[in-house]
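S.,

Sequence below, as promised.
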Amino acid sequence: MSPGQRIAYISDIGASGLKPLFITGAVITTVFLDLSLLSERWLRHRGRLAKNQTVTEKVLAGLSIVFAILGTLGLILLSIFDTLRHPRLHRLFLLFFIGGYVISAIFLCWEYQRLGIHFRQHRVLRISFWVKLAFIIVEIGLACGFGACLYKGRQNPGAILEWVIALIFTFWVLSFILDLYPATRTRKHKHGLQVVDGHQMEAAVSDDQAGYANGRATNGLAPAPYR
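The prediction came back faster than expected:
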């Protein structure tokens, strides 16, 4: 720690005797996050989640995975090249880590925004979009503040911001539970999810209301498993 610094950076702790634990935690966290992204892509391809309707959406999904892998490499390498022995490399890989995952989140958010246009009946897509957008805005703001603290040598505020960034990143990892959970409710549906436009939805609702009024469902449709 620098003279006058009272709050330890995560990097300071990781450069000490806890370095093996720091590396292990970085590897486990990023590998599981990347597996979540790959699982989401596979489930979306199989129709267990709302399927991509355009090539653009598939490209956005692919780019989000590519930049997530870049962020993964950044976090793993910054945990290996610690701030005590390799300060320049550590900060370079820190940039890869934060930049990689923020850019990945931007592409993923963009994909969800387009999916929400095609699948307006699925609220989870809108919720996930706003969660991702909030993450992007907050993390970019915190990253800018963190970089300014490093540049001006304000160690204690910088350390606080680093801990906050790490905490929000943890919530980002957990947010994929929201994205993957609907697949648990569609595993028995062979035909997956289909796009439903406004007129089809209104007609289906009218048929359902008429059918249930007579004690039966006239349209033969079961309740949608994905909300």
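The radius of gyration is 22 Å.

Coffee later?
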